[in-house]
User: What shape does this take?
Amino acid sequence: MKDNRPVNLDIGTMRLPITAWASISHRISGVVLFVASIGMLWALDTSLSSAEGFTRLGELLASLPAKAALWVVGTALIYHSLAGIKHLVMDFGIGESMEGGILGSRLVIAGAVVLSVLLGVSLW
Assistant: This one.
């Protein structure tokens, strides 16, 4: 049977709803956190190895590139946590409709932006 439905393979022309963007961002933040866990474990090991290691790590984390990396990881953690809380709320049956999903996505994105700015202010 021949299927005559149109096929759009150009993802750049697709208009995704905010719920899709929130879901994709949640997955990306999870990957960022997974990859960053390697650096976080190294930092923990270095800080606990000796007093010199702790001091050296403190000096390293005071640099601008390290603060930028901390901000990226912190932002990923903030977003991933807020989106996870949204999913837990939805597991209780709250906001399962399309309107609820849109509102929840907007709240997560807005909350993540506000908290990320506050994180940036506290780092610098």
Summary: The mean pLDDT is 93.
